Amino acid sequence: MFGLGWLEIGALVVIALLVFGPDKLPQAASQAGKTLRNLRRMANSARDDLRAGLGPEFQNFDPSDLNPKNFVRKHLLEDEDDWTNKSPQLEPATAPYTAEPVEELGYGELPPYDAEAT
Predict the structure, then answer these.
(1) Terminus-to-terminus CA distance in the chain, angstroms?
(2) Contact indicator for 64, 70 with CB cutoff of 8 Å
(3) What pLDDT band is residue 36 in, cutting at 50, 70 and 90?
(4) Total-model pTM
């Protein structure tokens, strides 16, 4: 839990008993639980409001996808079968590109000037 071992959790309980005392500790734990529930409810309602405001095209939007780790894992490290089957394959071009021939300028000749392009 949160990267804490039993020794660290025991130390936190002892410190909480020393700070709050045995009489106030249940009230402090109850207040902390209520605060966490309120924060979770506010976060869920904010997420739902964001989804409703973005519209139907973003129904599958998950704010945790904005985390760079999740973004890289989702878009770069997924199995190839998952994402290659979803998009159509593009056909390679059959004819090579050929540029139009350009007339060379003679010595001292000025190149064409387009006043609208500069």
Answers:
(1) 64
(2) yes
(3) very high
(4) 0.43
Bigger pLDDT: 72 or 90?
72
Both tokens assigned to 66 = 């904005």
CA 29, chain centre distance (Å): 33
Place of tokens 């309120």: 38
pLDDT tens sequence across 95-108: 677 778 778 888 98
Here the tokens at position 10 are 């025991």
Q: Give the span between the Cα atoms of 37 and 64, in whole angstroms.
A: 19
The 3 state secondary structure assigned to 34-98 is HHHHHHHHHHHHHHHHHHHHHCHHHCCCCHHHHCHHHHHHHHCCCCHHHHHCCCCCCCCCCCCCC
